[in-house]
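Researcher: Here's the sequence for the chain we discussed earlier.
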Amino acid sequence: MARKPKLDTLLAEAVDTARLSLAEIAGESEIGEHLGVTAEGERLVTHRFISHKKGYQGWTWFATLARVPRAKAKDLTVCEVGIIAGEDSLLAPAWVPWADRLAKEEIEAAEAEHSAVEGEQPTEAETSAAAQDEQGSEQPQAIPEGEADAVPAQDELATDEVADEEELQSVKSPARRQVRRRRTAQRTAARRRAAQRNRARKDG
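Model: Thanks. This is the structure I predict for it:
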């Protein structure tokens, strides 16, 4: 069993030294009456004072002093000064992790948005098909002789493609842009097939 440290008389009587050391971090009016002294170890004590600091009611000032063997009162060492909370102190609420502070509605909304983004991710086959359609749409097509009447339809198709591209650029999310690009490619291919059918009927 550890032996209880003996209270050093010279350090225990150094109340003024402890108060002066606290005056370096607090105003004199904020340091109240002396509450007592406690032996922390051999030639090591802690003095406690009431706190009158605004907003720190119930707190306690402390100053820990020490000395070497055969040291005089003028040679005491101030080890630490500060203020600690008491049993009736006003304390800040306990910290709550961010995840625990979220409302149930916020969690459900975040999960729904995440599921929506994952649901719009195109498959590898769809991405490949869209890329092939885009490459085919970029290849220039010559207008055969006798099909001058099909030029207006081609101009309308080109106008629609420009409008689709502008709409695609307005989408900021990469996942949504990829889905929109696939749908745009499908619409472009459908328009081209319709134009080809119209030309075939006119030729027939």
